[in-house]
């Protein structure tokens, strides 16, 4: 290379590098990309919900006011995927190593169950008799526990999956049976009090197939969330799928990632939590039309949502 060429090569190279960096930075700015996903409550129909949102990555529960503001923020513990607002105003929530009940006003823990080392707890459910239903991965058991920590009833579960992939949410139904989501097996089994399988709900073969939760409806149907399979299914009483929701049913910009809970409202609409997706929570009609949505990066990924003013 001649001296005159070399003299101009360095500045020219620097300009090219700076130009490329500027182009990358420009491409990453909101102005050069699609419009940011709308924050807060969006509802053309004027729908407003107060709800409880569970954020396992932050280890917190958030109480969200109807206008979308954070009305309460409570530390529950990391990695859990289930939470409830009790009739006395206390919160019950799972965390990676157990279940806690606490007073939101003071933050004081008022009751706690701690699992054995190596055991994971993703699910909890308060029962009418003040017992708590807990499902454990690793120990492979489903049990009702009294407030004095004695076990009132226990069912041993079977799974060949690694600990983290065994089970997710479990629910006791109004008829005394148990709906257990068998994680990476992508099935829900309805068990009787002795642990016998009464019915099996098999999810369709989709990418990242799995299951997070099953929720019995008043008409005997069962709503099932597909976890990373990113679909919601409604099964009838004979375990046949009669309704499905997937990303292609939703408006542009919606990204379904891991579907955690599905709550059927009295009006027939369904509220769904969308962990690591956009938006975090949304409501659809039976015709799959979105009528309410909520997005707030401050509350982190939401694994579970409970509408507190269901109507």
Q: Can you offer a commentary on this structure?
A:
With 311 residues, the chain is mostly beta strands. It has a single domain, classed as Methylamine Dehydrogenase, Chain H. It is 8% helix and 40% strand. The chain contains one helix and 25 strands. The chain has one helix spanning 3-28, and strands at 40-42, 51-55, 60-64, 70-75, 83-85, 91-95, 98-102, 109-114, 120-126, 132-137, 141-145, 151-156, 170-172, 178-181, 187-191, 197-202, 213-216, 222-225, 232-235, 241-245, 258-264, 270-275, 281-284, 290-295, 304-307. The strands form six sheets. Strands 1-24-23-22-21 form a five-stranded antiparallel β-sheet, with no helix packed on it. A four-stranded antiparallel β-sheet has the order 4-3-2-25, with no helix packed on it. It has a four-stranded antiparallel β-sheet with strand order 5-6-7-8, with no helix packed on it. β7 (98-102) and β8 form a beta hairpin. The radius of gyration is 23 Å and the shape is globular. The termini are far apart. The model is unreliable at 1-34 (pLDDT under 50).
The sequence of SSEs as H and E is: HEEEEEEEEEEEEEEEEEEEEEEEEE
Mean pLDDT, all residues = 90
Helical run tally: 1
Please report the first level of CATH classification, the CATH class.
Mainly Beta
Helix/strand/pairing class, anyone? mainly beta
**Multimeric organization:** single chain
Question: How is the CATH topology named?
Answer: Methylamine Dehydrogenase, Chain H
Please tell me what the overall shape is. Answer: globular
């Amino acid at each position: 290379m001649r001296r005159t060429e070399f003299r101009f090569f360095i500045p020219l190279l620097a300009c090219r590098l700076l130009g490329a960096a500027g182009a990358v930075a420009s491409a990453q700015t909101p102005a050069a990309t699609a419009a940011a996903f709308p924050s807060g409550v969006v509802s053309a129909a004027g729908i407003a919900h107060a709800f409880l949102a569970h954020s396992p990555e932050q280890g917190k529960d958030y109480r969200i006011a109807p206008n979308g503001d954070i009305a309460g923020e409570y530390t529950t513990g990391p990695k859990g995927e289930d939470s409830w607002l009790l009739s006395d105003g206390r919160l019950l929530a799972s965390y990676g190593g157990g279940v806690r009940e606490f007073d939101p006003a003071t933050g004081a823990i008022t009751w706690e169950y701690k699992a054995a080392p190596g055991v994971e707890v993703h699910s909890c459910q308060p029962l009418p008799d003040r017992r708590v239903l807990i499902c454990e991965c690793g120990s492979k058991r489903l049990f009702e526990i009294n407030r004095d920590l004695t076990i009132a009833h226990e069912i041993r579960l079977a799974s060949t999956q690694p600990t983290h992939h065994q089970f997710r949410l479990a629910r006791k139904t109004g008829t005394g049976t148990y709906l257990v989501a068998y994680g990476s097996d992508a099935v829900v089994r309805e068990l009787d009090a002795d642990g016998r399988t009464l019915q099996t709900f098999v999810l369709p073969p989709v990418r990242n197939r799995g299951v997070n939760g099953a929720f019995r409806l008043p008409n005997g149907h069962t709503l099932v969330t597909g976890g990373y399979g990113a679909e919601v299914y409604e099964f009838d009483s004979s375990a046949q799928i009669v309704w499905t929701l997937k990303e292609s049913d939703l408006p542009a910009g919606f990204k379904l990632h891991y579907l955690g809970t599905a709550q059927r409202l009295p009006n027939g609409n369904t509220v769904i939590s969308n962990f690591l997706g956009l938006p975090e929570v949304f409501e659809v009609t039976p015709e799959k039309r979105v009528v309410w949505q909520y997005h707030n990066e401050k509350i982190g990924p939401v694994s579970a949502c409970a509408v507190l003013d269901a109507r």
